[in-house]
Amino acid sequence: MAKSIADLLREMGIELDPETAKIIKLLEKKPTVPEDTIAAKLKLKINATRKLLYQLHTKGLVAYDKKRDPKKKWWYLYHWSLDRDRIKALVLDYKRKLLAQKQAQLEAEKRFAFECETCQEKYEYEDALESEFNCQKCGNILIEAKPTKIVLRLKREISFLENEISKTERQAK
């Protein structure tokens, strides 16, 4: 099941209070929604709803279209929508940063060439050579490190992120 936009934004570290999350969920369902409809669904006054919408607009998550009310010439009607292109760009940037972090973690994990079977301590080649391939903690002989569960998990996560980024970039073209 695909994540909602609100969940993706939270995962990326963008804070959403319960009302703004509800607004995003409403806007996910339709291309544009009048602000009076949003206010009615949230059971808020129009000014309180507008304030929440402007907060989302400041973050670049929503856009609006403003038209004069045919009944009241001095009044404007606002129709709001998700800025889907901006959200896609934010998600793509987030995934690229996450990919870079995972790749750095993988490189850090791979640099351990030897390990102690007894105490699970890991050593880089130079450190193992310096200690004559004996564990500095317990004195047992070091063995060549096998790919750990962490390395295998990171490789899977990197592959998944690379596919996601590639798919998103193809859709943007």
How would you sum up this structure, described in words?
This protein has 173 residues and is α+β, with helices and mostly antiparallel strands. It folds into two domains: 5-82, Arc Repressor Mutant, subunit A; 89-172, no CATH class. Helices cover 56% and strands 14% of the residues. It is built from seven helices and six strands; from the N terminus they run ααβααββαββαβα. The chain has helices at 5-11, 18-29, 35-42, 46-58, 84-110, 125-130, 149-172, and strands spanning 33-34, 62-68, 76-82, 114-116, 122-123, 142-144. It has a three-stranded antiparallel sheet with strand order 1-3-2. Strand 4 (114-116) and strand 5 form a beta hairpin. Helix 3 crosses helix 4 and helix 5 packs antiparallel against helix 7. The longest helix is centred in the middle third of the chain and has 27 residues, at 84-110. The radius of gyration is 26 Å and the shape is elongated. The mean pLDDT is 90.
Bin the helical content.
55-70%
Number of E-state strands = 6
Order of helices and strands: HHEHHEEHEEHEH
Q: What is the straight-line distance between the termini?
A: 25 Å
The strands making up the biggest β-sheet line up spatially as: 1-3-2
Percent range for β-strand residues = 5-15%
Global outline: elongated
Poorly predicted ranges (pLDDT <50, ≥5 residues)? none
The rounded Rg comes to: 26 Å
By secondary-structure content and strand pairing, the structural class works out as alpha+beta
Number of domains: 2
Tell me the number of helical segments per DSSP (H or I, 4 or more residues long): 7
Oligomeric status: single chain
The largest sheet is:
3 strands, antiparallel
Report mean pLDDT, rounded to a whole number.
90
